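Might you be able to review the protein record set out just below?
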Amino acid sequence: MPDPAAAYGSVFGSSQHSLMDSKRTLTFLMKCLTNLINEDPPYCLQAHITFPPRKLAKCSQLVTGYIVKAKSRLDYLQVDYDYIDTSSTEDNIEINHEFSMAEVELNDIMSSFEANNCQTIPNKLLEYQMFNQPYYTERILRLLLAPRQENQFMFAKYAERECKKLNNNGEVEA
C-alpha cells in the first residue's frame, strides 16, 4: 500500500503540476474531504494536515476550514496531528517491531479465547485493558479491531451460538 502522505502530496500538494490549479477542482476536493472527515482514518487526516493542498488565493478559506475540522476530529479521537511515515526511518523500525510484538500477543490471546470455546475473555486481555491502558489502546485494540479473516470466522461462530441461545430462550424467533 502506498504511503498516504506521499500519494496525497504528489497529487494535491505543492508540486509543479498539481491537480489543484483550478478553483473548481480544489473546491470539489475540499467539499469531498469535509464530507468524509468522520469516516477517514486518523493517519489520512494527519497526512492532509501535514501536506495540505496548494492554496489558490480565492480558496484559502476552504483549505483552512478543512484543516481546522480535521484537527478537531483528531482532538476528538485523541490522536496527535503529526503524520508518522511508517514506511521508513529507524524510529519506525521500532514502531513496526512493537506492532509485530503486539500481533504475536494478540494471536496468543485469540488462541486462548478460541480454546475456551469463545466463552470468556482471556485474562491477559483484561490485564492489558486495566493496567496498561496506552499499550492496550495504541497497539492491542488497534490490531484487534482490524479486519482479519479469523476474526470474521470467530465472530460468526459467536453470533451463531448467541442466536441459538436467544432462540432457545424464546427471545427471538427463528
Q: What stands out?
A: Residues 4-77 form one domain. The chain has two domains: 4-77, 90-168. Residues 88-93 have pLDDT under 50 and may be disordered. The radius of gyration is 22 Å.
